[in-house]
Amino acid sequence: MNATAQRRLLSSLFVGACGFSVLVALVPLALIMFFVVSQGVQALNFDFFTSMPKPVGQAGGGMANAIVGTLMLSGLAALLAVPIGVISGVYLSEYPGTRLASVVRFASDTLNGVPSIVIGVFAYGLAVLPFKQFSTLAGGLALGIMMIPIVAKTTEELLLLVPGSMREGALALGATRGRAVRTVILPAALPGIVTGIVLALARIAGETAPLLFTSFNNRFFSTSLTQPISSITVQVYTYAISPYDDWHRQAWAGALVLITIVLGCSVLARLATARVSRLRTR
Amino acid sequence: MTEAPTHVTHLPPRPTVHRAPGRDAVTDSPVKVDVRDLSFYYGTKRALEHITLQAQTNRVTAFIGPSGCGKSTFLRTLNRMNDIIPGTRVEGSALVDGKDIYAANVDVVELRRRVGMVFQKSNPFPKSIFENVAYGLRINRLVTARADIAERVEESLRSAALWDEVKDRLHDSALALSGGQQQRLCIARALAVRPDVLLMDEPASALDPIATQRIEELIYRLKAQYTIIIVTHNMQQAARVSDHTAFFWMGKLVEFDRTEKIFTAPGEKLTEDYVTGRFG
Amino acid sequence: MESHFQEELQTLQARLLEMGGLAEERVRSAVAGLSAGDTARLSVVAAGDEPINELHIEVDRRAFQLLALHQPMAVDLRAIVAALKINTDLERVGDLAVNIAEAARRYLVHPPVKQLIDIPRMGDIAQRMLRDALDAFVRRDLVLAQHVLDEDDKLDALKSQIFRELLAFMVRDQATVEPALDLILISRHLERIGDHATNIAEDVIFMVSARDVRHHADTLSGQR
Questions:
Q1: In degrees rounded to 5, what are phi and psi of residue A143?
Q2: Residue in B109, B116, B124 nearest the CB of A176
Q3: Do chain A and chain C touch with ≥3 beta carbon pairs under 8 Å?
Q4: Which of A57, A112, B202, C145 could form a disulfide with C201 if both were Cys (CB 3.0 to 4.6 A apart)?
């Protein structure tokens, strides 16, 4: 009985320790949420989404240009990263043992580890310097480069999850390898891949550093691809480092909008994934 | 039976009345698959040694043997499914309808259409029931008109004894079907492209007894139209469904004969030890 | 390691042998009782063959269970099918021993028709055939089984000879008709016992070699 009691004590100790760690990990998240929400809500109103920034000293104003800018930048990034990432992912899963695959995998992992500011500098050198012009395209390029390895990795992993028997089934019906990938394997993994892309978008939408040298900022409403463009993150950054209380409030509101977008994407992705896996296992 | 036994004064050199219990004796039918001296290698390891065997048209040929004996590998040489495994190699020849499927000019895609395959684990695509069956038709562009495809899908589902169970939900996901239904769907999918030969790799090993019985019944019915080759771990299943049985052991074909001969009076000691469970 | 199926199969065969021993003993007793004029002994044989009947039922039950529960194949399947058939033959042999004892008791009421020579000889041959058939079964001995088949001719010849001989007695002397008929019956029972031994030997050949030698089946069949 003594051994049992000892075992029980040890067990509850560990469970307690685990619970405590989780709590500690959650505290910063809760604090961030608390501050962002409590501070941001004060400046958040309908105007915030429809108005342009007001000059210093004038109360109110919004981030309409920055919200549109972030959407455009993310869209451009996805346009660049999704095809390249998905195709790389397909290659990695279809030809896992080849030399090229290991090169691609290594490159992708490395790219994933490159600090975002470095990617920003790279995009600056590639798309800003030659044209002597900050632009939406340059920003999209920077974010897209960041997104490629995430999409590639997700795609590879999800394709590997598709049972080999499905591939065999397609081949046994007379499908070529490419056909099997296109008509059976990719569709089977598609919901998961889409989820991965959404998560990648959420991740890059929150980036500031690569945009500082590329899309820069724009006080005016712009949808031009070749002009600088505002974005929520850069705008928040600009406001946050300013000495004005009005702008600080705007920065909190911007942060709240950004967090809501990212969180919304994540939740959406989670829900979609849950549905897919339920379908799978049935 | 007459009363008085007759006498035999000496033992005759060869046996042989072998009438299957409750079944008519198997008659010979034209050879469909003719394998000659086929060896198969995974890298340098020889997995099949000099297999020679004929599968007859409209007959069920069963491959039995312990795990790793090469029976599945051999089955997969017959539609060249092993081609997708890197580092494999085939020697000898395998003829389907008299033509060597390992000849240089053979179109593997066309071969796999003629030699269909059903796998151990049912593997429906994550598509609707209808699209699963139509898949082979679409990729091979065998039929293209919508009505023709629908007709062929129905015909195949009927052949696989699944039509009545799914006719009202053809456009539901195939993944919602039960295990036994999924396997019959995979059979329907294989039948849709109208193959000559149907290879089945332990098609009922993951199914419950009732579903297994349905698959076995189906196999029995399908042989009127197809040449069926089935790998099975279940000896009773081989005994129930097949006309000819091949016993494989360590990559060799030990014995190949009419099924009732293999299970009542095998010619080889190894076969006897295996079918009577004295193995190992 | 013996599987439990093999153990059960051996038990089945042991029961069958036990039954064979009892049947053989009864035939011996009946013939010996006749030769010695020992009516007490004959009465014991005629009283019935309860132990054989019990074994008959037990062997059937065991064989049936083994078939249903183990789905035996090949040599095991043949062994059980053979056991079922041998079982029937042995039970019939037991019945025939009773018939012989009864006929012998009737015969002994009358004065002897003649000195008994061929009937004890038939008894010996029939017993030996039975014993050899069972030995062949135990040892899976094809040669011995074939020997049993060959012996049956002798038995048939003796039966015909006895019949002719007794017919002559009956024609000469009406009084001998009843006892002579009993002797003819006994010779016929012994001949039948030989037939059952032959059946057993054929089943042994089937069990061991999977060859069906009944009714010249191998030469009759056109296929293969």
A1: -65, -40
A2: B109
A3: no
A4: C145
> Are B119 and A183 in contact (CB < 8 Å)?
no
Contact C73 B239 (CB under 8 A): yes
Q: Between B175, B176, B193, which is nearest A173 by CB?
A: B193
Cβ separation B264–C152 shorter than 8 A: no
**Which of B121, B176, B193 lies at the smallest CB-CB distance from A174?**
B193
A42-83 tens-digit pLDDT? 878 888 888 888 777 777 777 888 888 999 999 999 999 999
State the DSSP string of B202-265: STTTTS-HHHHHHHHHHHHHHTTTSEEEEE-S-HHHHHHH-SEEEEEETTEEEEEEEHHHHHHS
Residue among B8, B264, B275 minimizing CB distance to C213: B8
Residue B89 near residue B62, CB atoms below 8 Å: no
Instruction: State how far residue A275 is from chain B, nearest Cα, in angstroms.
Output: 13
Interface check for C8 against chain B (CB to CB < 8 A): the answer is no
Q: Per mean pLDDT, which range of A54-63, B133-142, C34-43, C52-61 is the poorest?
A: A54-63
Asked if the ipTM is above 0.90, the reply is no
CB B255 within 8 A of CB B267: yes
Residues forming beta bridges with residue B123, ordered by sequence position = none
Structure tokens at B15: 């046996």
Q: Which residues of C12-31 are buried (b: 16+ CB within 10 A; e: fewer)?
A: bbebbbbbbebbbebbbbbb
Which of these, A54, A74, A52, A72, lies nearest to A63 by C-alpha position? A52
Neighbours of C197 (CB within 10 A): 32
d(CA A152, CA A98): 16
The mean of the pLDDT values for chain C is 89
Inter-chain CB proximity A282 and B116 less than 8 Å: no
Phi and psi based region of residue A271 (left: phi greater than 0; alpha: psi -120 to 50; beta: remaining)? alpha
To 10 degrees, the CA torsion angle through A163, A166, A172, A174?
A: -130
Q: How confident is the model at residue B153 (pLDDT cuts 50, 70, 90)?
A: very high
Cα gap A55→B20, rounded to integer Å: 98
Q: Residue B229 half-sphere exposure, CB side, CA atoms within 13 Å?
A: 29
Q: Would you give the DSSP letter of residue C86?
A: H
Task: Identify the closest residue of chain B to C206 by CA–CA distance.
Answer: B265
Do A168 and B119 lie within an 8 Å CB cutoff? Answer: yes
pLDDT in tens, B193-228: 999 999 999 998 888 888 888 889 989 989 999 999
- Distance from C-alpha of C124 to C-alpha of C32, rounded to nearest angstrom: 10
8 Å CB contact between B235 and B152: no
Nearest to B139 among A166, A179, A188 (CB): A179
What residue of A is the nearest CA neighbor of B118?
Answer: A169
Whole-structure pTM over 0.80, yes or no?
no
Are C44 and C109 in contact by the 8 Å Cβ rule? The answer is no
Minimum Cα–Cα distance from B6: chain C residue = C215
The structure tokens 């099949």 sit at B48
DSSP per-residue string spanning A161-226: HS-HHHHHHHHHTT--HHHHIIIIIHHHHHHHHHHHHHHHHHHHHT--HHHHTTT---SS----SS
* Interface chains of chain B (3 or more CB pairs under 8 Å): A, C
Q: What number is the average pLDDT over the span A194-212?
A: 88
Q: In this structure, what are the phi and psi dihedrals at residue B231, rounded to the nearest 5 degrees? A: -95, 135
Write b or e for each residue in B76-97: b if 16 or more Cβ atoms lie within 10 A of its Cβ, otherwise e. bbbbbbbbeeeebebebbbbbe
A184 and B176 within 8 Å at the Cβ level: the answer is no
Taking CB atoms and an 8 Å limit, are B175 and A172 in contact across chains? no
Q: What's chain B's length in residues?
A: 280
CA distance C8 to C62: 8
**What tens digit of pLDDT does each residue of A96-113 get?**
888 999 999 999 999 988
Q: Do residue C214 and residue B6 have CB atoms under 8 angstroms apart?
A: yes
